[in-house]
Amino acid sequence: MKVSYNELQGLCRKAFSGIGFEDGDAADAADMVAWMQCHGLHGVEQLNRGLDYLLAEDPEALTRVIYQDGDLAVLDGQGHSVLRSISLATELGFAKARARGLSVVKIRRCHNRQLIMGYLSRLAGRGMNITAFWRNAQEPLTEQVVGFRAGHSTPEVRVYSVRDVPEENEPNDGITLVMANHVELLPSLGADHDLDLLAHHPESELLACRQLALKEGIEVDDAIWARLKTLAHRILVESSDASRGGAGAGVNDND
């Protein structure tokens, strides 16, 4: 089925509210999913893969700073989706890069890492060059690099397959962000690297996807759309129950 950008963003926001996100966090998370879907990067599918994790997460377990200095910050995402854990990390890296020219932020123990792209798009729009890197554990072992030029809302995305997995390889559930005030950071690898390029999405391709989606609508899987509607319905049910509970309590007090 096809829906408009506003319909997708609105339903996702209600679904995140149903999961238990605060209003501001729900709106941010919805923007991230809609942004990815609009650019042809399968944001709704990525969200669907991580919904079971989101439903099981403890919202009280907040992202924690493990170490930081003027240029570097290391954070523990507490095993949460980036939709819960990434806002602090990105703003921290942005502030350091503004002050020092360059910053590196490492977020450990986080998932749904694809969904970080919308957050980075916002920072790029504020004049920051950004590269995000992470390694996926599935076979074949892959590494993904996402690069934004300052002032550009659309990234360049590359996915590589590692030919020879090192013996010391360990599972990686983190993400590394590099931000630079005045230096472009888009990745460029020569033929001598032990990597095979699996996918390359240049800025122009993603921008064309966005233009088409805004004009003709965004394609969304029917089953996933129904699941989001179910989650969105939670907040309505809980609000109605709370209202009825409040009214009942008032009658009892008058008795």
UniProtKB/TrEMBL annotation:
Pfam families: DUF3726 (PF12525). Coiled coil: none annotated. InterPro entries: DUF3726, Mal/L-sulf/L-lact_DH-like_ah, Mal/L-sulfo/L-lacto_DH-like_sf. This is DUF3726 domain-containing protein. It comes from Halomonas gemina. The lineage of its organism: Bacteria, Pseudomonadati, Pseudomonadota, Gammaproteobacteria, Oceanospirillales.
